[in-house]
Amino acid sequence: MANRKYLLAALLTICCYLAGAQTVTFRQVDSTSLAQYNAGNWRALIVDGNSAINSGIDYPVLRLRIAYAQFMSSNYHGALAQYNQVLKSDSYNQTAHYFSYLCNKYLDNNPAASYHASFIDTAVINREHIASFGLLIAGLETGVKIPSNAQRGMGSYTRASLGNRLGWRLQADQSLAYYNQSITSTTPTNGTTPQITPTNTTFANTQFEYYAKLGYSINCRLTLLGAYHYLNNSFGDVNFQNHVAMAGIKYAAPFFTLQGDANVSSITGARVTQFNVQLSTYPLGNLNFYTASRLSVQTGDIKQNIFTQLLGFKLSKQLWLEASGSFGAMNNYLEADALYVYSAIDVSQWKAGSTAFFALGQHAVLCLNYTFEQKLDYYLNNNYKQNSITGGLIWKF
Q1: Do residues 144 and 155 make contact, with C-beta atoms less than 8 angstroms apart?
Q2: Cα dihedral 247/252/257/260 (nearest 10)
Q3: What is the secondary structure of 255-320 as a DSSP string?
């Protein structure tokens, strides 16, 4: 009986020793993560590093190593999550700010990139040629709209744009655009009289536009948005001075962004308020695959709900594709922070399309878009199809 008692005690001691041997210590985590970092074993470093944090071993150097492993794995959102934790304990950490700048730059989040750049040492700023004032992006797009309606001529659209950094926290985007299409009015089948021009005449529908948007970074996650869009519309001899104002806020978190904004417009005599909420997700932590879901609610002289869904993915090292669809009548509808205004005489009932982005080196991106629209003839009240093809070039400084 006594021997059995001693044997049980010995077994218990051995079990406790083995259990203790499985407990990870700070020294083990530090040496293992350093070895994995030096060897470039990024996957193991991410897995083992996160496991150590979950077990209670958490310190800035470990976070920096995991973040760099995520960065080297092109998981920029995952890296930002780690760098944000480092900055909570050391708000001026140069490594965290520099790589956060790069991560946001690769995610096309210029406001957050600029915010982090404001904390980077001057020597690094000069070495990387990062300026607090100057051009960020320039673009040119032009396209045609081809309707299947004999009473509608082929439309053309051209827009030139510039994006400037006006300090570390302020960015301004501006563009000029011009649209032109010939319209032939037709006697309505219901006997009503058109409101803009006499029937059975052909007139030019032209539109000149100026657009300006400001983005101010409150911090690395919150950006205040404001925009103004002026449109000079002409329907033959009838001219309209149209105005659109937008105010919103955008929240950027690891793996998703959320934006809400309100738009007030006066377009061709109609006063409309449009509220938008958009959720964008980045499941892989980069632009290899992303989604955007947007709900727009119009009130005022026009009441309508529009839903838009977008999917984007990387096909190759230089090629990205986006596919999107919008559902709901787009009457004086505002899209892309009020950059695009759907104020045509014929209202689009729904649209779907795709865009290809092809990188031409480090700075230039070539864009090609195709869009199909179901439109409603203003005079005859019947549907017709419209195909649009747009090409563009974007230059990133």
Answers
A1: yes
A2: -20
A3: TEEEEEEEEEEEETTEEEEEEEEEEEE-TTSSTTEEEEEEEEEEEESS-EEEEEEEEEEE-SSSEE
Provide mean pLDDT across the span 330-342: 97
Say what the pLDDT of residue 22 is. Answer: 52
215 closest CA partner among 256, 252, 182:
252
Sole residue written with tokens 């480090």: 362
Backbone angles phi, psi at 183, to 5 degrees: -125, 130
Sequence letter at residue 90: D
CA torsion 60-63-68-69 (nearest 10°) is: 150
Fold of 133-396: Porin (2.40.160)
| Global confidence as pTM | 0.88
Of residues 255, 300, 249, the one with CA closest to residue 274: 300
Amino acid letter, residue 82 = Q
Planar angle of CA 150, 151, 157, nearest 5 degrees: 95
pLDDT at res. 204: 94
Q: Which residues contact 95 (CB under 8 A, 6 or more apart)?
A: 64, 86
pLDDT band at 24 (very low <50, low <70, confident <90, very high): confident
Separation of alpha carbons 173 and 166, rounded Å: 10
DSSP secondary structure string for all residues of 173-238: EEEEEEEEEEEE----TT-PPPSSS-SS-EEEEEEEEEEEEEEEESSSSEEEEEEEEEEEEEETTE
Scanning the structure block, which residue is given the tokens 């399309």? 353
> Structure tokens of 319?
């090629």
Give the mean pLDDT of 372-391: 96
- The residue extents of the domains of the chain are 2-128, 133-396
* Cβ count within 10 A of residue 114: 25
Backbone φ and ψ of 5, nearest 5°: -65, -45
CA distance 292 to 309: 6
Nearest to 180 by CA among 344, 342, 382: 344
Q: Per mean pLDDT, which range of 92-96, 149-153, 194-198 is the poorest?
A: 194-198
What would the two tokens of residue 277 be? 């909420």
For residue 56, what are its two tokens?
A: 């209670």
Cα gap 350→330, rounded to integer Å: 7
Query: Among the CATH numbers 3.90.76.10, 1.10.10.60, 1.25.40.10, 3.40.50.2300, which is that of 2-128?
Result: 1.25.40.10
